[in-house]
Amino acid sequence: MKRVFLIVLDSCGVGQLPDGPAFGDVGVNTLRSCASSPEFSVPNLLKAGLGNLDGVDYLPKEPNPTGALCRLAEVSMGKDTTIGHWEIAGVPSARPLPTYPQGFPPEVLEAFTKETGRGVLCNKPYSGTAVIRDYGMEQKETGKWIVYTSADSVFQVAANEEWIPLEELYDACRKARAILQGEHGVGRVIARPYVGSSPETFRRTANRHDFSLEPPKETMLDAIQKAGLDCLAVGKIHDIFACRGTTEHVYNKSNADGMQHTLDYAARDFHGLCFVNLVDFDMQFGHRRDIDGYARALSEFDTWLGGFVKMLGPEDVVMITADHGCDPAYTATTDHTREYVPFLALGPKVRPGNLGTRGSFADIAATVTELLGVPFETPGRSFAKELVEEN
After folding, report:
1. 3-state class of 201 per DSSP?
2. Above 70 in pLDDT, residue 391?
3. Which end of the chain is more exposed for a tag (fewer CB within 10 A), N or C?
4. pLDDT over 70, % of the chain
5. Mean pLDDT along residues 149-154
């Protein structure tokens, strides 16, 4: 194959993994919750075979699917963006990244304060929208950073763009990333800018920026780049992989923006991988437990997909998957949920059919690199030969 478009619908899980209870997740199913909404309309995904996935008994079956499909289990010890994408890229994580349900220890905050010249507010797990509502005015009065976390391995820093320059926020996060290594090596340090003059008007902006821990091993992105092929990143992919392995990247302001960037890359003659993350599913709707919003976003993606597949050349394939779940109907928490993820592939040479349930997200990396003819060592098992018709 010449071009692979790998699109991650961030958090679009398809049902609880067997070990879900160990992660605090029972009965979760992101796609099922979305399918219950009147806003849910995905005819192109259904025609591709979305309803034929193992365990999906709430959507109609397609007797003649246009795509190849399977369900993938996660073997990494986590349910977050970093670990999920690393596994998709061929590097499962046997050990969980550190989390801080009681907040970060004094040695971390003291070092952060010393390096940035500003103190810290909050320091506990918090909703990203609630934390600016509850601490925003105190930030205006004191000039301190709002530092918070979640059930994920993240160190999040919120600052009002109108009071603290955006570049100062980014620089503070770079300093936090340098501090948070080794024992305290969280998956991501996230800059969370917002604007507004009062709790009623505070809102987060699109200027979020992630500073990720570097992957512990070579990923498929490194292998593709090393082979001299293109590795184009759309959305937060470049950040998730700590700026490693991509030959070109562009950030998204929204799902619609990311889909347009993908169209722009598809209009170019490149050879390699275009790796896309659409984060609104997770950030705007999953964590906010907005079932109708999530369903509407899936419907918008489905409409876009119908046009995108018409742009695929004879040596192109588009793959659609997810990195974890974030069930918008699960009210026990507002965190990610431990779920299987879907995999759908479409393209002129794709052999339609159900490939069942596979043991690791890393099977995607093994498959992508085999299709592109790139040597890569991963515990994932390629299904390239089942996926694509031989010449």
Report:
1. coil
2. no
3. C
4. 100
5. 90
Instruction: Note the pTM of the prediction, 2 decimals.
Output: 0.90
Give the chain's largest Cα–Cα span.
68
| Cα separation, 19 vs 75, whole angstroms | 10
| Measured distance CA(354)–CA(364) in Å, rounded | 15
Name the token pair of 322. 């997810």
Question: 152 pLDDT exceeds 90?
Answer: no
Domains of the chain in start order, with CATH, are 3-93+215-387 (3.40.720.10), 106-212 (3.30.70.1250)
- What pLDDT was estimated at residue 389? 83
Cα end-to-end distance, the chain, whole Å: 11
CA distance 151 to 177: 18
d(CA 329, CA 344): 24
Q: For 33-48, write each residue's pLDDT tens digit.
A: 999 999 999 999 999 9
Place of tokens 């365990």: 55
User: What is residue 16's DSSP assignment?
Assistant: B
Sign of CA dihedral 181, 182, 188, 194: negative
- Predicted local distance difference test score (pLDDT) of residue 244: 96
**What is the rounded CA–CA span in Å between residue 351 and residue 355?**
10
How many Å apart are CA 91 and CA 389, to the nearest integer?
27
